[in-house]
Structures are given as structure tokens and as C-alpha cells.
Amino acid sequence: MPRYVALFGSINVGGNRLTMADLRWAFEREGFTGVETVVASGNVLFSFDDRPTEGLEELFAHMMAERFDIASHVAVRSGAELVALLAADPFADGDEAQVHAMLLSGQPDPAALAKLVADHAARGPERIAAGDRALYIDFVDGVGQSRLSNAFIERRLGLHGTARNRRSLQRILAKLAEATT
């Protein structure tokens, strides 16, 4: 049975507190198997019959709203998609704690991406590049020092997203690999 990872945005930040045990319970109630969490920030590994990840994203967003009254963007990727995401990272030479992939609700429009880069050019040193339903960001001086926020990105791209640093994505991928061996 295929393995997936669901990456939730807005979990355990801004008052949206949710235990990982409650999140696992919700997945199991929906009929998913092999459910486990990685890091307490809304990363859920699970097994399910092969189906388009976009449909799963809608299901999980609805589940969060109905069961926990939390509005959350959810990015679902298969293990193969996560491998491809990391392999395509143009900033792999950067600090793995500062290089992030923002998993998006759709493919960034090239004109919107160009506007995002232009609008941000004078705001900070971050490097930005588009990927497959993703945005790669090298925060260079650290996320805490950056003026490049999710809200800034989402407004310019017209897409929702949730970001993870390279270290976290590698950890998630390792857990996915463990579960399939």
C-alpha cells in the first residue's frame, strides 16, 4: 500500500494547538493505516490506496475544520514526490536548517513568481526558486531574521503553502523509508 506524508500548515502556532495523538486518532478514524507523526508540527505519515494527492489534501483540510475547528493548508506528497522535491532543490548547497521548501496548493504562475521575486528584492538576501508545486527558499541569514513570510508569498502567488526546512524533509523521508522496509 502506498505511503504518503501530509504536511499541515498552522498547527501548533498562533493558538492552533493540537496534540499529535489527536491528529493520529483523526487519521485512523478516517480509515488510514500505518499512521505516525514526525516532529510535533503536523507531519503525518500514513498508508492508503493509491489516489491523487490533491483529493487527499481537500479531505484533510475538511477533517481539520470539522474535528478541530482549525483552518489549515495541507500538502500531501508521496514518498517519490518527496524524493523528487529534495533532488530538485537548487539551494542544496545552503545550510539545511535555512533552506526550505514551501509546498504549495498549485504550480506557481511564472508571472506571479517574477512579481514575488521583484517585490522582495529590496527586503532581504533570500534566494527564491520555483519547483513542482513548491517554492524553494534559502533564508541565508535565518528565518527569524527574514521579512519573507508565508503571508507575503501566498498573497503574491495566489496559492497557499506550508514550509519545512531541508533537515525536517530529510527526517520525514527517512521515516517514510523505514516504514517501507
Question: Would you give an account of this structure?
Answer:
This is DUF1697 domain-containing protein. InterPro entries: DUF1697. With about 180 residues, this protein is an alpha+beta fold. It folds into two domains: about 5-80, Alpha-Beta Plaits; about 85-170, Alpha-Beta Plaits. The chain contains six helices and eight strands. A four-stranded antiparallel β-sheet has the order 2-3-1-4, sandwiched between helices. A four-stranded antiparallel β-sheet has the order 6-7-5-8. Helix 3 packs antiparallel against helix 6 and helix 4 packs across helix 5. The longest helix is centred in the middle third of the chain and has 16 residues, at about 55-70.
Number of domains: 2
Helix content: 25-40%
Could you name the CATH class of the largest domain?
Alpha Beta
Number of strands: 8
CATH fold call of the largest domain: Alpha-Beta Plaits
Rg computed from alpha carbons, rounded to a whole number of angstroms: 16 Å
Strand content: 15-25%
For the biggest β-sheet, the strand order reads 2-3-1-4
Separate helix tally:
6
Shape assignment: globular
* End-to-end Cα distance: 12 Å
Average pLDDT rating: 89
Give unreliable regions as ranges. none
**Describe the biggest sheet?**
4 strands, antiparallel
Protein name: DUF1697 domain-containing protein
Organism: Novosphingobium aerophilum
InterPro entries: DUF1697
Pfam families: DUF1697
